[in-house]
Amino acid sequence: MVTEPGTTPTQGAGTGVVLASYGRGALVQDGTLTLRCGLVGRKLRLVCGDRIRWQHAPGADGPSVESVEPRRNVVERIDARGRAEPVAANIDRIAVVIAPEPAPDWFLVDRYWAGARHKDIDALLIVNKQDLGQGPLAEQLAVYRSLGLACMEVGCRDGRGLPALHARLAASVTLFVGQSGVGKSSLVNALAPEAEAQTAELTRDAEGRHTTTTARWYRLGADAAIIDAPGVRDFAPPAHIVRAAERGFIEIHAASVDCRFNDCRHFDEPGCAVRAGVAAQHIAPRRYESYRRLARLYEDLA
Ligand SMILES: Nc1nc2c(ncn2[C@@H]2O[C@H](COP(=O)(O)OP(=O)(O)OP(=O)(O)O)[C@@H](O)[C@H]2O)c(=O)[nH]1
Ligand SMILES: [Mg+2]
Ligand SMILES: [Zn+2]
């Protein structure tokens, strides 16, 4: 029954949180117990962060997840075939991690931010690898700061900014997302002491690098948690969670009150205050382009 280091054989029942979900089973934490659970029934679909009830009946092989509490929210991504895939549930904050290397995909940052706003989830931009400098990032960071997105500069290698980040993540559940290789797992390891011991589940990809293959919850102190998610390049929040694409783009939404038409999409409608704002440099052209790409994608899928 014990297939994962640190799992505890047990009898009884209780409630816990899903640390990681693996198709036919889940790793569950209940207080100090870590349990490798099967699933009762074929319909049960679990995701990292789910609150569940488990039971280990006498005579059973091991503990099973019996039921899932209703989710407060669920963050999804779209896979290469355009299907929505849940990543994590019951999240307070999405932290988008970027770094000078690999070069940021700003469209991805914009989509995650818009998606977080749409779901009323707090958003944070973490700029890692400060030891590499941030030259070309500075211009875009200034745009995000002016729009009110919290940005924190950190470095796993030299420990820069980590105490401030740790403090910021207190009393909440934060999902780390971002491109592969930006240092999400390195950050989680640096912040959560218990994570370091569990890097066994990191696998190596074709180029021999460690890469994360499934979302995984780690406790951060007594009252907080961080979820390390895989950074597959093609993944992004699905369009349907950013249905209100415009609402997710704070500056575009603000300008749109002056558009001539109430249902202006800000593409080529006459009297569009958003395009006027872009022309007058009040709205960053790159942000407008992100909005257009997202709005188009949504229209294609609708
Ligand atoms: N120079 C520098 N390199 C770093 C820093 N943080 C992480 N790295 C390196 O970046 C590489 C990728 O780190 P990971 O933590 O595996 O990145 P990840 O975002 O978890 O990647 P995926 O799991 O594939 O999504 C590793 O070689 C790390 O050593 C940093 O602060 N500075
Ligand atoms: Mg990783
Ligand atoms: Zn408009």
Description:
The chain is an alpha/beta fold. It is 25% helix and 27% strand. The chain contains nine helices and 15 strands. The protein has helices at residues 106-118, 138-146, 162-168, 184-191, 193-196, 245-248, 250-256, 273-279, 285-301; strands at residues 12-22, 25-30, 33-39, 51-56, 64-68, 74-78, 84-89, 93-98, 122-127, 150-153, 173-177, 203-204, 210-211, 216-220, 224-228. The strands form four sheets. Strands 10-9-8-11-15-14 form a six-stranded mixed beta sheet, with helices on both faces. A five-stranded mixed β-barrel has the order 1-2-3-5-4. α1 (106-118) crosses α9. The longest helix has 17 residues, at 285-301. The protein is globular and about 70 Å long. The structure holds guanosine-5'-triphosphate, magnesium ion (MG) and zinc ion. Zinc ion (ZN) binds at residues 256, 259, 264, 266, 269, 272-274.
Strands of the widest sheet, in order across it, are 10-9-8-11-15-14
Rg (C-alpha, Å): 21 Å
Helix content: 25-40%
Query: How would a textbook summarize the main sheet?
Result: 6 strands, mixed
Query: How many DSSP E strands?
Result: 15
Shape: globular
Mean pLDDT: 85
For the termini, the CA-CA separation is 46 Å
Ions, cofactors and other ligands present here are: guanosine-5'-triphosphate, magnesium ion, zinc ion
Distinct helical segment count: 9
Strand content: 25-35%
Q: Which runs of at least 5 residues are low in confidence (pLDDT < 50)?
A: 239-243
Global structural class: alpha/beta
H and E string: EEEEEEEEHEHEHEHHEEEEHHHH
